[in-house]
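input
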Amino acid sequence: MKLLTILCVSLFLTVPLTSQESPELKEASDLTQAFLKLVNEQKYDQALPLAKRALEIRQRLLPRDDPAIGNSLIYLVHIYDGKRDYGKAKETLLRLLQYQTERFGTDNVKLAPTLERLAVLYYRDGDKSKAEDAYKRSLAAKEKEYGMDHVEV
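output
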């Protein structure tokens, strides 16, 4: 399921290269394709440095709110999950949440998946209070967007 999610996100959110793209952004795109292949092969240790480098390039060259930065953070979370490094996954999810909050606002429904993943990691760590808060925040965003009777809620 995780692999399907990462592949769907990558296919949906990968922006085609343009003639105006810098060589470094092309490198980031190439690195992304390479680490996605490695993730598909469950070679997380090999994928991690490529994903980190792609994120570093994008953070340096793109506007702070560029979707490619958020995508890169999502990819890192998937890799850390695959490595079962839940501390780093949580740390990266918090970075992603900050990015999404700055981009979309504090109560936008687009934050819900990140909040739900954080809740799972908080619960795993035994921090039930933070887990509950994250789930409640996700639920509130969904209720605001869809209404109380919607299947997403």
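quick obs: The chain is about 75% helix and 0% strand.
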